[in-house]
Amino acid sequence: MSADCLDMLTRLLVAEPSARMSMGEIKVHRWFQRGLPPGALEMNDFLLQSLTDMDEVLAPGTPGPQLAMAHRLCVQVGGYDAARRCP
Fold first, then answer.
1. How far apart are CA 64 and CA 60, in angstroms?
2. How would you write the chain as a 3-class SS string?
3. In terms of pTM, does the model score above 0.85?
4. Terminal CA-to-CA distance of the chain, rounded, Å?
């Protein structure tokens, strides 16, 4: 295992959530960026923002998290067609 990989894993596998690496720290970490295809960071940013926006629309205390997860799974397995529902 490379020193960079060990560094990232050590900083991710921390019992205290507030002490773990943030998403921003992960994205700029040397190990994460090694061999990353052009445009991959921008695509990740777009997808993460899309999920954040969707989570903000769903109100706390409703089945929002479950609906968000179901939506994500539908998208991952081949798309979502409102007329046909999730495949």
1. 7
2. CCHHHHHHHHHHCCCCHHHCCCHHHHHHCHHHHCCCCCCHHHHHHHHHHHHHHHHHHCCCCCCHHHHHHHHHHHHHCCCCECCCECC
3. no
4. 40
Measured CA distances, 66 to 17, 19, 60, 61, 63 (Å) = 22, 27, 11, 11, 5
Task: Give the residue extent of every domain in the chain.
Answer: 3-58
* Other Cβ atoms closer than 10 A to 12: 12
What is the Cα–Cα distance from 15 to 68, expressed in whole angstroms?
Answer: 26
- pLDDT tens-digit profile of 5-36? 999 999 999 888 889 998 888 888 999 888 88
